[in-house]
Inverse folding.
């Protein structure tokens, strides 16, 4: 049995056993969520659970990333203001803005500035992983799950198009989407490969930094996609979890010693978040680097009777009812 199999087997009975009470049924029915999801939320959100569930029905403020590869951000602010958009700088982000007000026309994705690649429409929380990884000019960087290219092009911008980003994606239609974004945004330091993240050891390369924005349930995107209230069964979580662990191990093998990896998901499910990072710490010997200067709640150190490494408090979580963003999990890991 592999280490992954052993790890999952040790946790399965606790993670996937649910105790549904009449109160849980009442809350699930009130907000339209699956009962097992509410049981989990009560475990780690406690008396904030209904605030969270309620917030999932409210629209999020749209946000954009100014593309400094093509335009001065001050100039972009002025041009969009002239079109009737009202922007507020996101204080922790180098290039992010909230769109507080939009004109009836043109829409955010139909302006001349958008078509010229002056900005990318990107969720606020999804800007966090590239900022935390903070790739530098001249480095060799791997993006293990690069579709649709928002974080890939964000990293290229942080690197000023210097150095190399190897971005992998096996789905042909998604590859086309990434190519389109790379071209529109003027990115020139990305090598795009048609392959899965599990196969990256075939490249025979060692990377300075790796972004693993892992395929997941998207349980943090409910404000954007209400179908996710009832879309993911526990069996689906198990499948995502195995894929995430497999990708993590693949990335670990090609990360140089002393290199950094960001593990992130657009999910608030501990099964896809802390459970995965706990494996990285306990089985792979990776070290969690505490994230500072980014708004968010601390990572969980226990869930459903499972104790995680205390290091996991250095990861961060975002929620729509607290940070007013998508739900996200972000952790910075170092290969010792």
């Amino acid at each position: 049995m592999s280490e992954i199999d052993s790890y999952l087997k040790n946790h399965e009975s606790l993670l996937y056993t649910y105790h549904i009470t009449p109160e849980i049924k009442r809350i699930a029915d009130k907000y339209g969520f699956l009962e097992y999801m509410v049981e989990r939320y009560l475990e780690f959100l406690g008396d904030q659970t209904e605030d969270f569930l309620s917030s999932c029905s409210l629209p999020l403020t749209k946000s954009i990333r100014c593309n400094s590869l093509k335009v001065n951000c001050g100039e972009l602010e002025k041009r969009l203001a002239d079109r009737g958009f009202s922007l507020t700088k996101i204080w922790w982000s180098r290039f992010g803005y909230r769109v507080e007000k939009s004109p009836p026309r043109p829409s955010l994705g139909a302006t001349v500035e958008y078509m010229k690649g002056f900005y990318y429409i990107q969720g606020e929380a999804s800007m966090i992983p590239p900022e935390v990884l903070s790739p530098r000019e001249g480095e060799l960087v791997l993006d293990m799950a690069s579709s649709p290219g928002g974080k890939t092009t964000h990293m290229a911008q942080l690197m000023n198009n210097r150095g190399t980003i190897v971005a992998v994606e096996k789905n042909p239609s998604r590859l086309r989407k990434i190519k389109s974004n790379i071209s529109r945004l003027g990115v020139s330091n990305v090598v795009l490969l048609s392959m899965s993240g599990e196969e990256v050891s075939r490249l025979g390369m060692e990377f300075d930094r790796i972004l693993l924005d892992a395929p997941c349930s998207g349980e943090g995107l409910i404000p954007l996609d209400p179908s996710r209230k009832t879309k993911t069964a526990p069996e689906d979580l198990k499948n995502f979890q195995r894929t995430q662990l497999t990708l993590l191990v693949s990335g670990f093998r090609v990360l140089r010693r002393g290199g950094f990896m960001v593990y992130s998901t657009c999910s608030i499910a501990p099964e896809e978040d802390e459970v995965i990072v706990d494996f990285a710490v306990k089985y792979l010997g990776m070290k969690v680097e505490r994230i500072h200067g980014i708004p968010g709640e601390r990572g969980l150190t226990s869930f459903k009777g499972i104790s995680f490494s205390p290091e996991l408090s250095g990861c961060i979580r975002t929620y729509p009812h607290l940070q007013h963003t998508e739900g996200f999990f972000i952790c910075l890991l170092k290969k010792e």
Remarks:
- The chain has a mean pLDDT of 97.
- Residues 88 and 204 are 44 Å apart (CA to CA).
